[in-house]
Structure formats: C-alpha cells, structure tokens
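Workshop exercise sheet. Pairs work together: one partner reads the sequence aloud, the other fills in the structure field after running the prediction. Swap roles for the next sheet.
Pair: D.N. / O.F.
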Amino acid sequence: MGEQSGSSIGEKMILGHMPLIGSSYQSKEKDRELIRKFSDKNEIRKIFETAYKLGIRKYATASSKMSKLSSRHIGLIKEYNENGYNFEVIPCFSIPITLKNKRIDAFKRWATYLKIEKQKTPTILNRVLNDPILNFREEWRKKLPEATPYSGNDLNALKIKWDSVEDALIEFSDLPVSYVEPGSETDFLAMTKRYDLLGELIDRITASGYEKILFGVHHAGETINRLDEELEKFDGYLTPINSMGIMMLPTHKSAEEAIKNTKKEVFVIKPFAGGRIQPSQAFKYILKFKTEGIMFGASTEEEIVEDINAYANATQILV
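Structure field:
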C-alpha cells in the first residue's frame, strides 16, 4: 500500500461516543467506571483534544434519550465548535418503534430476527447467544430462547413515534452534521419489510434539513441486501466490521459479502469488538474492505494515541 497524506486520518477516523456516554461492551462494572469518569466534563475534554491534535475532525454523538451523559457530550461538541474547532458530527438516535402505543420489546424483536434468519442460517440462535457483546445484555442467554416473535398482524400494526424522531432531529440542529444515523432498529424494519416506515423516516430527516443518512445495521448479511433493493435517497451504512465477526450477523461470511457488494457508502463500527481485538490486528482486517470511515471508541488519551498509530502503521500514513 502506497504512502498517503496525513490528512487521511482526519478524513477516515471518527471518534466514537459510546465510552464517553458510559458504554464499554465489557461489563457493568466497567460501565459504572466510565460513567463516573465522564461525568466530569474535563475528562471528555481530554479525549476530544487528544483526538483533535492527532488530526481527527469527525465525532459521533447520540441523542440525549440514549444515555444520561449524551446531552453533556452534545453540549461539549457545540462548545468546541463555538470556539473554532470545526468538528464534523455524525449523530445517532434510536428509532422509536411502537405497537399499540408502547415501545416494542427488545427480546421479542430479537426473537423475530431469529425466526427470519433461521431460514437461511439454522445456527443463528447459537451464534447470537454466544456473541460476547450481545451477552452483555442482562439475562440474554435466559430470556432470548424464551421470547416469542411478533406475529404478522403485529408487524403490520407497527408505527414510529414521530414526535420523538422530531425531538432528536431538533436536538442535532445546532451541530455541524455530516450524516444522521437512525439506529439498528433499522434491521427490524428491513427484515419485517416495513420499508414504508423507513421511507417515511428518510423523508422526515431530509425535510428537517439533513442531507445525508447512514442506517445503523447489525444484521448486515440480511439488511444491506434488502435496503439496497428496496430503498433510495439514503447514503449508506454504519455496521460492525471486525476480524472476530462480533455483531456481524447473521454470519460473519454473509455480512462480509453484503458489505463488499453494496454500492452504498460503508462506515465501520465496533472495529475492536469492544476492546477484544488489538488495534494493529483490527486495521489489517478492516483495510480489506472499501470503507468511507472507521468509528472507534477510546476512554483514555493513551488509547487514542495507540489506535491512531496503529492505523497510521497499517496504512503507512505519516502522523
């Protein structure tokens, strides 16, 4: 691979928000540690400024409904931009899918995935039960096998709580947004063929003045093919890509193929699989794919330096 300019780090690398809003994908104890740490704005500032010094100009964030720390994170991004830092922002929000005026149940949602994906992937239950990030969910291995999928009538009756979507879009309106990311509930609407709701979601986002949309997907092997065929007016996907295949569903291979075959933009999430893969190993794998950006999380200044150096070494960029 030929040497690239140092600006490629700023173009490619995106500082993720999950550790900074208290999510480690490792343990409840680690989450509590992160929440304590990043309740102090100065700790977030240290992360932002280290990343900025290393050339990172793109930052992910999330709507305030996703975490108690999200509004603080968003506020700091606004503060830095007011002081001339020129962050680009990729904000995400959960899609508030409802049935009979109540948010859908997470375990029934996953049971519906399993019912659909089992047709092509008989081993899907075992795969998701043993995924280390999914196992982080409370009572995952107990509750998922007991859950029942939504019925066809239920799926036809699904709605989106549009006022909550509007609230999130308004919250992002003061940010220099490059893309908006509706979250991984996208998988559910795609696999249950509720393209009408996804199409309306696209229309509402663009009507709010946002120009580019990336759908967050964890079931790349199913969702990407479906959306490529059924939807227009969106730009691409944010999806896990890592050498362990963690959260690359329904199978590592099917996700890889869908990611390689789509003509839409692809952005990487979970490159280190929640701290389970060394950065140097992670980038060797990720660079096999054509991607527009790599979103990575870090909870210390040292981690950011290590991650950027690993990327620079893998791509022969001069930092």
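Discussion prompt: Residues 301-315 form the longest helix (15 residues). What would you look at next?
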